[in-house]
Design brief:
By secondary structure, the protein is an alpha+beta fold. About 40% of the residues lie in helices and about 15% in strands.
Length: about 400
């Protein structure tokens, strides 16, 4: 079957809109019809929301649907599913897993979270201690995860756990899909410096996961997890935004609207950060174009590094530009939001929330090592624990 071109995709999209008018069709039903028509993510296989078309043609579909007033799938709310779970399931899932999970994930009927980091395994994720022990056709999981976005909303989670403590830490891990509604899963809020609790800690006590919900071979979970992590960094640092989108937008608007706040020093700093933000935006566009050729590489780590640094510097400049107004904070109410909003609310919120950007999705220190070793080709950092069984490591 020949992959459809732009004209064919445009025709298929128009047929979808004609058969399911957005103005009179239930939102969820429209999204299901779009997925079934292969217009969800056109580069994916036929039958799984795609048409085996080039990834670069997705904007053709999106533009037609936007012109018709069609609803989107609220990607900010389901970003973990779209940006992390879906690529991993596509890469390592069985046919049954792909059929079961991808459609409700894309439509937004089922929210996903990521059970990776632990209190003793954040930057050094491969040192994780959550155990999964085989019991017949099930795995019994015990442990604790932390900094889990959207766990309070999620139906499913991507989970890595240690299945062989006699192996070195990178080789004794397996990857699972965990039902967050199962007995033994407890979610507790973690209140952040912003006052919100978008993060959670998750306790797993005797949670039974069928072996049919394992992704990839037993003991190769680290390889599978790297696919997730590389896609996560692209989704955080390389998101598609317009010029003056993201953190630089509010600062630029304040600068234009409030000339009384301007100084020469602030002007120079704003110009520098504006240019750097635009360079990062264009680099993100180029990175997404590279995805047409396959899975993301370590370049996503560089984008995520730039994202964190720029957000923190720009939000700091915004607070300084506003002077006394920048010291105000509108609302410390404890709430558990439905989506992660890096740029929402006021300047004080943006300043505080950006502090987490250099931790979440891989700490900046770890990402610097990845860029140094895998992009620049510098010598690998010595690791004395590389071939030591996990059970023998000092903790």
């Amino acid at each position: 079957m020949t992959a459809p071109d732009a004209a064919e995709l445009r025709r298929r999209t128009q047929d979808l809109v004609a058969a399911h008018p957005p103005a009179t069709t239930d939102r969820t039903e429209f999204l299901k019809a779009r997925f079934d028509a292969g217009l969800a993510w056109v580069h994916c296989p036929a039958g799984l929301g795609g048409l085996d078309a080039p990834r670069s043609l997705q904007p053709v579909v999106d533009a037609e649907l936007a012109a018709a007033g069609a609803p989107d799938n609220d990607p900010r709310r389901i970003g973990i599913g779209l940006g992390m779970a879906a690529p991993t399931i596509l890469g390592y899932g069985t046919d049954e897993q792909k059929q079961r999970f991808l459609r409700p994930l894309w439509v937004g009927e089922e929210v996903w979270c990521q059970l990776f980091s632990e209190p003793g395994a954040g930057s050094d994720l491969a040192a994780l201690g959550t155990r999964a022990v085989r019991d017949g056709e099930d795995w019994v999981v015990d442990g604790q995860k932390v900094w889990t976005s959207s766990a309070h909303l999620a139906r499913w989670a991507i989970l890595i756990a240690r299945t062989d403590p006699d192996q070195p830490k990178h080789r004794g891990i397996s990857y699972f899909i965990c039902d967050m509604t199962d007995p033994g899963v407890e979610v507790r809020p973690l209140r952040q410096i912003t006052g919100e609790a978008e993060f959670n800690e998750v306790f797993l006590t005797g949670v039974r996961i069928p072996d049919s919900r394992r992704l990839g071979p037993v003991g190769e979970g680290w390889k599978v997890a790297r696919t997730t992590l590389m896609n996560e960094r692209v989704s955080i640092g390389g998101a598609r935004i317009p010029r003056e989108g993201g953190m630089i937008g509010p600062v630029a608007r304040t600068w234009r609207a409030r000339p009384e706040l301007r100084t020469h020093d602030l002007h120079q700093r704003l110009l520098t950060l504006w240019v750097e933000a635009e360079v990062a935006r264009l680099t993100g566009t180029r990175l997404r174009q590279q995805l047409v050729a396959g899975q993301p590489g370590p370049e996503g780590s560089g984008m995520k590094l730039a994202f964190a640094r720029l957000n923190q510097e720009i939000s700091g400049l915004e607070v300084e530009l506003l002077g006394q107004e920048g010291l105000l904070y509108s609302d410390w109410t404890m709430r558990r939001p439905e989506l992660v909003d890096f740029t929402g609310r006021d300047a004080g919120y943006r300043y505080l929330r950006s502090k987490g950007n250099s931790i979440e999705g891989g700490t900046s220190e770890v990402l610097l090592n990845i860029v140094a070793e895998r992009v620049l080709g510098l010598p690998v950092e010595p690791r004395n624990d590389k071939d030591v069984a996990w059970k023998d490591l000092a903790r």
